[in-house]
Design goal:
Order of helices and strands: HEEEEEEEEEEHEHEEHHHHHHHH
Number of strands: 13
Number of helices: 11
Helix content: 40-55%
Strand content: 15-25%
Number of domains: 3
Oligomer: single chain
Structural class: alpha+beta
Largest sheet: 5 strands, antiparallel
Distance between the termini: 87 Å
């Protein structure tokens, strides 16, 4: 009877194991529901259900506008599902960024992809009770008591778009979002760690989004700033190409010129600096503008005044020819020549001649003098155990000599290495912060 009981138990166990083994043999059977949600300045959370058993390898693919390709990260499945958390409190993401995601499974050498979906990363901070209205091509978002000003910005967006389309010979490629922030803290919290303290408005052209700060200036200034920022978006559409960004001075010059349709007070800034011999080479302000307020102001002024010169001498249609050349993949110099009919070097020379100064010349670096560092006497630095045990003084050293902690040999070297590492960290942070914002 005991043997029969054991046989029955074994049979039941075998029947119980059978279906599980069959399911495992079936393997991965595709993706179920895939979802995503976000909390601003905290995280974006992605989840997916897995049918059947887990794949050999599972990955999440993420992409955002303006990015090159997709970010791919491995994700470990857990009991029929998988979760990935993007920590946006550490890795800053601009509000209103659409994040496209899809899951990828590797199964026996084959690849299975889920359908691509998109989540929009919203500034959903608790104190911001956003409301929205669509005004022409713009959707304006505001909170608190800012409705009247927000609607005015929406109207100005239409004015700026029409003016920029006429100048650039193109059409706005899609809708624009405008977010109006009431306080500096709210505004700065949206722009992230790379924002400069003097910014009152900013356009993220790849997101087709403009952020405004109501306390960033007088009502008249903010209205002009709105036209400036929306011109950046039209310029982006007019010059969009897969090769390179247009010259920064051209982008900012066109946006500033479009505010009132001429150089205005920008010319007097250039005249003042030219009298002191302080104009920039245009090559120096092609990639980025200087951080200092005075230097940044001159960069804007030179760009605006150059646009005024081009329009005055070659007609407004020259600007449209320049932007069309960028769309076809021209370099900066090629685009300027196709627009004006003269080489870029001649255009620059004409600009400086307009203000009675010679074109800026490269500054030769000063030669590096001989080192003034006192080098340690041979034998004072630990030879690393070549002639003795690690950490021991060299055989010919007197008692107390050598490279023990606290001596003058190894410690200065460690301090120098630490200082070098700190400097590298500071440089990396500064470069990262400069890259965080592409347009202002």
């Amino acid at each position: 009877m005991g043997r029969l009981t054991r046989w029955l138990a074994a049979t039941v166990a075998a029947c119980a194991i059978g279906p599980v083994g069959a399911g495992a043999a079936a393997g991965f059977d595709g993706f179920g529901d895939a979802t995503a949600d976000s909390t601003y300045d905290d995280e974006i959370r992605f989840e997916v259900k897995l049918e059947g058993s887990a794949p050999d390898r599972l990955e999440l693919l993420l992409s955002t506008p303006g990015g090159e390709g997709s970010f791919v990260t491995p994700v470990e499945p857990d009991r029929g599902s998988a979760t990935y958390e993007w920590d946006t409190s550490v890795e800053y993401v601009t509000p209103n960024t659409p994040v496209t995601y899809r899951w990828r499974a590797h199964v026996d050498g084959d690849i299975v992809l889920s359908e691509a979906q998109t989540i929009r990363y919203e500034d959903d901070r608790e104190a911001l009770d956003w409301r929205s209205a669509q005004l022409g091509e713009a959707t304006v978002h505001w909170y608190g008591d800012a409705e009247a000003q927000a609607r005015r910005f929406g109207e100005l967006t239409a004015v700026g778009v029409e003016r920029a389309e006429q100048l650039l010979g193109t059409s706005l490629a899609g809708p624009v979002d405008v977010f109006v922030y009431a306080t500096r803290d709210d505004f700065a919290g949206a722009l992230g760690p790379g924002a400069r303290e003097w910014i009152g408005a900013v356009a993220y052209t790849h997101l087709r989004t403009i952020f405004m700060w109501l306390e960033g200036g007088s009502p008249a200034y903010l209205e002009v700033a709105m036209v400036h920022e929306v011109t950046h978006i039209v310029f982006h559409d007019a010059t969009d190409n897969p090769y390179h960004e247009p010259a920064r001075w051209l982008n900012e010059g066109i946006a500033t010129w479009s505010e009132i349709g001429d150089a205005g007070g920008q010319r007097s800034i250039v005249e003042f600096e030219a009298a002191g011999g302080g104009l920039f080479s245009f090559e120096a302000i092609t990639q980025q503008f200087p951080i200092g307020e005075r230097a940044a102001e001159l960069s804007y002024a030179q760009g605006t005044t150059m646009i005024d010169l081009i329009v005055d001498r070659y007609g407004p249609e020259a600007i449209a020819r320049i932007t069309a050349a960028y769309r076809e993949g021209s370099s900066d110099d090629e685009a300027l020549e196709l627009g004006t009919g003269i080489p870029a070097d001649q255009l620059y020379a004409d600009f400086y001649a307009e203000f009675g100064v010679a074109a800026p010349q490269p500054i030769s670096p000063e030669p590096i003098g001989p080192s003034t560092v006192d080098r340690p006497v041979a034998g004072e630095v630990d030879p690393g155990g070549v002639d003795g045990a690690p950490g021991e003084p060299p055989p010919d050293a007197a008692p107390g000599e050598g490279s023990q902690p606290g001596d003058d040999g190894a410690v200065p070297l460690l301090i120098a290495l630490a200082a070098g590492g700190a400097a590298a960290a500071v440089i990396a942070v500064r470069v990262s912060r400069r890259a965080a914002r592409r347009a202002s």
